[in-house]
Here is the input.
Amino acid sequence: MREIANEAMGWSSKERQLLRPWVKNDSWEFRPIGAEMSAQIFVVATPLGNREDLSPRAQRILQTADLIACEDTRRTGQLLRSLEIVHAQLVSYYDAIEGKRAEDLITRVQSEQLSLALVSDAGTPAIADPGFRLVKRAHELGIPVRVIPGPSTLSALVSVAGLPSDRILFVGFLPRKKNQLIAEIATWKQSLASIVAFESPLRLRDSLAVLAEQLPNAEICIGRELTKLYEEVQTSSIAQAVQWAKAHTHLKGELALMIHTATTEEEKADVEWEPLLRKAQFLLERGLSHKDIVACLGDEHIDRKELYRRLLELKNKL
Here is the structure.
């Protein structure tokens, strides 16, 4: 017998929770009597700040999951109460305990054949938030992992920034120390991508100053409180962003940055030549002549005169 428990049947929140053991987790289809429950993980995106952004599917999974693993049980509890989900079993799952808690949860999910919904405080789990260890362990044990997509600061910022988005490099939170941030910025030039990062309002001005020093031609988008009442999106040159931050000394809320490094054609060429020049250096250090190296590395796609010129520059640096 296939019976669907839909909203038209008028199930109350309490009834839905009590019926949970008999209802499949990815739909309101009742399990056949005597059927075994199957272990599975749902990675569920939750609102960044506007509760209307929660999808009906995400709400249904949160209503029916046996366990909900979350960063902060109080914050997730508030969301669930607003949805009239009052009997959910919440389990804390945050950075400091993720290593041990992931194994404990997976063991329980597998042994008791439970469904588990993984959520973060806001947005999509496992993107600069806890989650990947739990998902990785589930994959290793053959436990199905299903995604319930939705809000994400990363995709939200990229979509409104107005900056090149054909290649994106997400680096999480920027390093706090200046020398570490400079080292991080140096790696971006190799990617030829727009960079997306998170930053604290308290460190924004200092970080922008370093970015301006290292990437004076960059464009940047600052996204603050995305999807919330005081949402703000500011796209400008890096120099203008520094001035904007100086004029906004009491910023609050969550910040995300998208940085277009505005790499020059010469810098792009340097990046493209780098793998070849590493091989050339290896051969130079072993005594091969320029002519032999050009013969070894040059092909119809390589400008041999440019290769020879760069070999001379490389030899002078050795």
Notes: The longest strand covers residues 168-173. The beta strands are 40-44, 67-70, 90-92, 115-118, 145-148, 168-173, 194-199, 219-224, 232-237, 255-260. The chain has three domains: 7-151, 154-260, 265-317. The radius of gyration is 26 Å.
